Amino acid sequence: MSGPDEKPAGAGLGDEILKRVVVRRFDVQDIVLVPILSVVIALILGALTMLATGVGFETIGRSFVALFTGSLGSLSALSETLTAATPLILCGLGLALGFRAGLFNIGAEGQLILGGIAAVAVGFMLKGLPAIIHIPLALLAGMVAGALWASIAGWLKAATGAHEVITTIMLNFIAFRLTDYLLRNPPIQKEGRSDPISESVLESAQLPKLLAALDPSYRLHLGFLIALLAVAVVYWVLFRSTIGFEFRASGANPEAARYAGMRSGWIIVLVMACAGALAGLAGANQVLGVLGRASPNFSAGIGFDAIAVALLGRSHPVGVLLAGLLFGALQAGGRQMQVAAGVSIDLIAIIQALIIVFIAAPMLVRTIVPWAFRAGSGARSGAR
Amino acid sequence: MAAIESASSAGAHPALDRAARRQRLVTAWLLLGLAVFIAVVFGTGVTGSATFRLTLPRDAVPLPNLVVPAAPFIYVVAGILAFFGVRQFLRGGARWSSLFLGIGLLLAVAAFLVWAADGKSFSLTGMLESTVVRAVPIALGGLAGVLSERVAVVNIGIEGMLLAGAFTGAVVGSLAGGVIGIAGAMLVGGLFGFILGALVITYRVDQIIAGVAINLFVLGMTSYLSSQVLTEYRELNNAPVFRAWAIPFLSDIPVLGPVLFRQNLFVYGAVIMVIIATYYLFHTRAGLRARAVGEHPEAADTLGINVYRVRYINVTIAGMVAGFGGAWFTLGSVGRFDEGMTGGRGFIGLAAMIFGRWHPVGALMAALVFGFADSLQQKLAILQTPIPSEFLAMAPYIATIILVAGLIGRARAPAADGKPYIKE
């Protein structure tokens, strides 16, 4: 068992995570076959869950049809899929950046919420600005808020060695309470309301709908293009820039990176800030593009689902894009499933959790479907 | 020999010294800052005196109310804190600084209470009673964390295990009564502990990813079952609640009686589990082996301990403890399951484990502190203080960050914590 890529036990948690998350060699089975099989097995287990809770075969069939038509079946469904995928892609990119640098950031949810609140604040407080200035300002506010919140964890790690998993979990809860407070008090709370809800974002800060010309009910908005842009930028930063090389180097081998003269503390803070900025952008995107205001739980667990997206995408920007689209489709289809077949959308959460398990445990997938791996991997994965 | 010693000490000690000095300074500044804050913010606003009610309506031995003149008390506390702070600056040996800090924080909390209750009447015993009740799930979550991290398995999935226990407790409790409900909750909690073990030990999933996945899975599964099944069959979500059970004689002691000895099964169960876990971990052969596996699995393996088996067993037991803690939410509290009803208590349990320095008794004590903050937050709404309760609710999380960062004291995890062990 002591192969060349086995590290001694003292190599640290970050390396262990990294080994699971980042694929260094091109391996068709791991990159293509395992994710596809994971999704298929998770869907099958989802069907079995429905069966176990007394849902009839006919309803199960109907819900899978609804899952498909609700996500890809029409232009409206496609618009819903892309709308749901947008924050997942943005947030997943941030987490992927962290994974690449050996940082496990569980705090995306808190960064996303605070980013959203900051974007709402800028979105309704600055009056009389043209959209071309107001929108970038509001997005920037979200990014800055997320970045600052995340860099607390980065700074603590760099300065004191506090593990980022614990600090980001705690920062999440602090962010939740802070949001509770902000939404219940002026100036964020909507005037004349006693329940926690924010003022509405002004027209000039709302992200324009992309398909409004076809049908105003299509919700797809500018945020999706921003997410695509972010994929390109993160790809360039990670694989084409010096700082990206430093990110990856300090993730792959922190000791070596330090000996090579890289400032490890600075890199940790910077990576966390970038991840937080992307999560904050995702939050800003939700309030400016979809919801129009902030309310409790407006984040809807996107920060946690994005962990799954980053894992499924193997921490590669393009992989994150594809994984985000898949999860967006599951969300959009899940809503349709709830309406058309009466099956609770929480089933989607089960399927997503199962996908994480299988992605993180390729050995488990190999145990469940050994026949898929026996033959030449290229032909098999092509056939699927 | 001397040369080697000086070389090694030159390598290790400056860093330690610096850390110790930093801790000392941070502690000193914290104490001084608290003193100033208390004198300025609390001291100036108060006029009357605070009345603390010590007896509950049904107590056997009534006690007179405790009346504290607010302004003098607050200034005395501020003075003591300032003295502690200056003393820390001048000669703060690291030896007593945590004790002084502890006393200082306790006094600060007392001053805060006096300030909040100034001119009003406040049931101290009632708050302490609810402190203990609220500490139960946190303590059990923390104990579950201790049991699994002592064998080097990081358990982020405690929250999910609590939730699974809460759900099972409600459903099985509704069908077959409370005791069987608890058994079912422990069984399901143990199952998730075993699943965590299987994922991280046999399938070598990263421990944090496995924990996150368990949390998401249980949240999804219980929410799905709740909206798909429980809304239709309401009789499945109507469990009996364990009533308080007064221990004869002990429950008649003023203040302590109602707080400690007039509680329900879960409070007594949590205390008993903490005692058993302490005995197991530190006074039995199996416990020594478990700790060896957590500190140095290679050495343990060399001595013939089956590392994988020890980890499986301990993580499963941890899951059962968390399942019992989860049953508190339904069988020990409200009798019905609501989606996501654990509300992050599992993560506070994780914080309690760190605060308690990976020791069962420490985790229990930390849980009591967090339970106190929790119940204080509830009571503050009644007293209508100008401090928003949300900020008080943040306190446990901020305190955890400070502790993890080693700004005040340092909590040390088991050496192999979080690392998978791959047998050669």
Give a written overview of the molecule:
- The complex is a heterodimer of chains A (384) and B (424).
- Chain A has helices at residues 13-21, 28-52, 57-72, 75-100, 108-125, 131-160, 164-184, 223-240, 242-252, 254-259, 264-291, 302-312, 317-341, 346-360, 362-368, 371-374, 377-383.
- Chain A is mostly helical.
- Chain A has a domain at 89-320.
- In chain A, helix 4 packs antiparallel against helix 11 (264-291).
- The longest helix of chain A is centred in the middle third of the chain and has 30 residues, at 131-160.
- Chain B has helices spanning 2-45, 70-91, 94-116, 124-149, 158-176, 178-202, 207-230, 256-260, 265-283, 285-295, 297-302, 307-334, 345-355, 360-383, 389-404; strands at 49-53, 66-69, 121-123, 245-246, 262-263.
- In chain B, helix 4 crosses helix 13, helix 5 (158-176) packs antiparallel against helix 6 (178-202) and helix 13 packs across helix 14 (360-383).
- The radius of gyration of chain B is 24 Å and the shape is globular.
- Mean pLDDT of chain B is 84; it is low at 1-12.
- At the A-B interface, helix 1, helix 6, helix 7, helix 12 and helix 14 of A face helix 7, helix 13 and helix 15 of B.
Keywords:
heterodimer; A: 384 residues; mainly alpha; 17 helices; 72% helix; disordered N terminus; disordered C terminus; B: 424 residues; ABC transporter involved in vitamin B12 uptake, BtuC; 2 domains; 3-stranded mixed beta sheet; two-stranded antiparallel sheet; 15 helices; 71% helix; 4% strand
Structure summarized in a few sentences:
Chain A has 384 residues and is mainly α. Chain A has helices at 13-21, 28-52, 57-72, 75-100, 108-125, 131-160, 164-184, 223-240, 242-252, 254-259, 264-291, 302-312, 317-341, 346-360, 362-368, 371-374, 377-383.
